[in-house]
Design brief:
The complex is a heterodimer of chains A (378) and B (195). Chain A has two domains: 188 residues, Rossmann fold (3-Layer(aba) Sandwich); 171 residues, Up-down Bundle (Glutathione S-transferase Yfyf (Class Pi), Chain A, domain 2). Chain A is 39% helix and 24% strand. Chain A contains nine helices and 15 strands. In chain A, the strands form three sheets. A six-stranded antiparallel beta sheet of chain A has the order 2-1-4-5-6-7, with helices on one face. In chain A, helix 3 crosses helix 5, helix 5 packs across helix 9 and helix 8 packs parallel to helix 9. The longest helix of chain A is centred in the middle third of the chain and has 41 residues. Chain A starts with a strand and ends in a 5-residue tail after the last strand. Chain B is 38% helix and 14% strand. In chain B, helix 1 packs across helix 2 and helix 4 packs across helix 7. In chain B, 30% of the residues are buried. Chain B is α/β, with parallel strands linked by helices and 195 residues long. Chain B has a domain of 90 residues: Dna Topoisomerase Vi A Subunit, Chain: A, domain 2 (3-Layer(aba) Sandwich), CATH 3.40.1360. The chains are: A alpha/beta (378), B alpha/beta (195). Chains A and B meet through helix 4 and helix 5 of A and helix 6 of B. Bound molecules: adenosine-5'-diphosphate, magnesium ion and zinc ion. Zinc ion binds next to loops of chain B. Magnesium ion (MG) binds next to helix 1 of chain A.
């Protein structure tokens, strides 16, 4: 699947225009603050119904406008597919999705077009907050198993209900047993999904890390369940979670929130069994993130569904030449349509045989588009 | 007292799903209407308030002390179907598969919205269990409906009464009220025991 042409309207600073993309590699070139990331963001919105750089969709609507729109014509093995997303300003932003011209609920639209984005903010994934790692993991699970969305939301909802119940005075213990039972059932589903995905990631990262790092250190991706330490796992995730809730009940009642469960899970990246988030150098952490993102693309690409588009926003300038080459090599294995943004063409290690379309971006408008080969001077 | 427009707007805005804006739209519509809608609605509302109440036994709307279902001797008094809303009773009746009685909770347990078990007619339900052989918990498959069903099961089972739930078929997140007739009939006929 690739995007043939894309039209934007009142989207950030982008001039209303239609862009004709190259089926394989597209390079968006320009100085800072011209709109390169915005164009990549528009492509991503169409697939993911969100942005990769902000959780506030209202930021995507041009200042002073009520509605922003992105639409595209995609080619799926010769079959034309039409996608459109509108964002309407309001107390919260409303998303209106259209597939083949028909308004389609977001839950049904999701998955018809898929994309993986890699941007400088991802580089903090290894050492940053656990929330970001959980989000990364959960989104990866949604993209390969859409049914996970409802399971995850049900779990989050039961967590909110249990916490709210804990904060009420003199709680009915019979009812607390019910919330525990429900939390265990829904939480175990989330834990099992995450456990399985982390095993897949571990296997993929193991293959990709060495090629990016160029040395023999052994990486590992480990699941760190949010069950407070000291409680050994016996039996299923559900049994473990049940034991943790039972043990933590007096503490939960006192504090008014649930102290154990998947909402406290983490994903630990390791090198030779040592957590990178504590002991890694910046270079090692970046290598691990590159390996994680390549693994993400690989896992999504091999799951049933359309081949994901790949967006690399300003990543090349953040990585050294070796990591860049390794990244591009690993990515070239996947015949995905790629969108790259950069301030300097020379940052991109595209070999002389690589054909790509270069777009010059200036103040929200594409001033030139031309097809070229290779970015590396011979 | 506030002027009639303000008074009615505030009154309508108390309805579920109706905000200030929608309430205002209704009020201005009624003001401009020339077909007598306002009087007709006022009359119907007065009758609703004067003539209807909730059945003393099951909570379903009724003109007398007991609703049509509770006072119908052909219905099986050994079977109680617990639902969230009166609309769910109508949906189940449309399937023509169920001949027992009902118990309407008018809500589900929802700590986030401040609804605890004491706000629902649960004691009334427990007081009806004498001579009952089965209680069907036909609550919506939401997190709240599910928690309420689990809670009721814990209270009812010790009395030696069988507790069941409609089988799958009613999709997660879909209300009983919206399930199609065939799906709902199938779900009720193949209900499963709990616990
Ligand atoms: N909602 C918006 N309306 C108008 N302009 C915006 C909006 N959001 C961002 N901008 C502006 O768009 C410009 C382009 O931003 P960006 O796409 O991040 O550029 P680049 O990636 O080329 O550095 C910036 O100058 C920014 O201030
Ligand atoms: Mg940028
Ligand atoms: Zn009745």
């Amino acid at each position: 699947m690739f995007i043939r042409r894309l039209t934007t309207r009142a989207f950030r600073n982008l001039a209303a225009a239609t862009v004709e993309f190259h089926p394989s590699v597209n390079v968006i070139l320009g100085a800072n603050a011209q709109g390169k990331t915005s164009l990549a963001e528009a492509v991503y919105l169409l697939a993911a119904l969100r942005s990769f750089r902000t959780s506030q969709l209202r930021e995507l609507i041009r200042h002073g406008e009520a509605i922003a729109g992105v639409s595209a014509e995609a080619d799926d093995g010769g079959v034309i597919q039409n996608f459109a997303v509108e964002l309407e300003r309001g107390p919260s932003v409303t998303r209106i999705c259209r597939y083949q011209g028909h308004e389609t609920p977001p839950a049904r639209y999701a998955g018809k077009l898929r994309a993986v984005a890699f941007h400088p903010g991802d580089l903090g994934l290894v050492a940053g907050l656990p929330e970001a790692r959980r989000r990364f993991l959960d989104r990866l699970i949604f993209s390969v198993s859409p049914a996970y969305l409802a399971e995850y939301q049900a779990f989050q909802h039961s967590l909110r209900q249990r916490n709210s119940f804990l904060r009420q005075g003199a709680p009915d213990m019979e009812l607390l047993d019910v919330y525990d039972e429900q939390f265990v059932r829904l939480g175990a589903v989330v834990m099992e999904r995450r456990e399985k995905m982390i095993a897949e990631l571990n296997e993929a990262v193991d293959r990709h890390y060495a090629s990016v790092a160029g040395d023999g250190e052994k990486p590992g991706v480990r699941y760190e369940p949010g069950v407070s330490s000291g409680l050994a796992r016996e039996g299923s995730a559900a049994d473990w979670l049940r034991a943790a809730l039972e043990r933590g009940r007096p503490r939960d009642l006192e504090r008014g929130f649930t102290g154990d469960g998947p909402h406290c899970d983490d994903l630990d990246l390791q090198l030779d069994q040592k957590p990178l988030r504590k002991f890694g150098s910046q270079g090692q952490r970046r290598t691990a993130v590159v390996a994680l993102k390549v693994s993400e693309l690989e896992i999504i690409a091999r799951s049933p569904g359309p081949r994901p588009l790949l967006l690399l926003d300003d990543v090349a300038s953040e990585l050294d030449l070796r990591r860049n080459r390794a990244l591009f090599e690993a990515l070239s294995v996947h015949p995905a349509q790629v969108f790259l943004t950069t301030t300097e063409l020379s940052h991109l290690p595209l070999g002389p045989a690589t054909e790509f379309r270069e777009f010059a971006m200036e103040q929200g408008a594409i001033t030139q588009a031309r097809d070229r080969r290779g970015t590396e001077s011979p | 007292m506030a002027d009639p427009i303000q008074q009615l707007t505030a009154a309508l805005a108390r309805l579920p799903g109706v905000g200030e804006k929608t309430a205002q739209r209704f009020v201005f519509f009624l003001l401009a209407d020339r077909t007598g809608a306002a009087r007709e609605i006022a009359h119907a509302l007065a009758r609703l308030a004067d003539e209807m109440s909730l059945c003393r036994q099951c909570g379903f709307p009724s003109q007398g002390e007991l609703c049509a279902y509770c006072s119908d001797p052909r219905r099986d008094g050994g079977l109680i179907c617990v639902v969230q809303n009166p609309q769910d009773v109508l949906a189940i009746e449309r399937t023509a598969e169920y001949r027992g009685r009902y118990h309407v909770l008018h809500g589900v347990i929802n700590p986030l919205e401040g609804v605890g078990p004491d706000r629902l007619p649960i004691r009334e339900l427990l007081a009806r269990l004498d001579g009952v052989s089965e209680v069907i918990l036909a609550l919506n498959p939401t997190v709240e409906g599910d928690a309420t069903a689990l809670y009721l099961q814990r209270l009812i089972s010790p009395a030696g009464v069988k507790v069941t739930r409609p089988a799958t078929g009613v999709a997660v997140g879909m209300g009983i009220e919206y399930a199609d007739k065939a799906t709902l009939a199938q779900a009720i006929n193949s209900r499963r025991g709990m616990g």
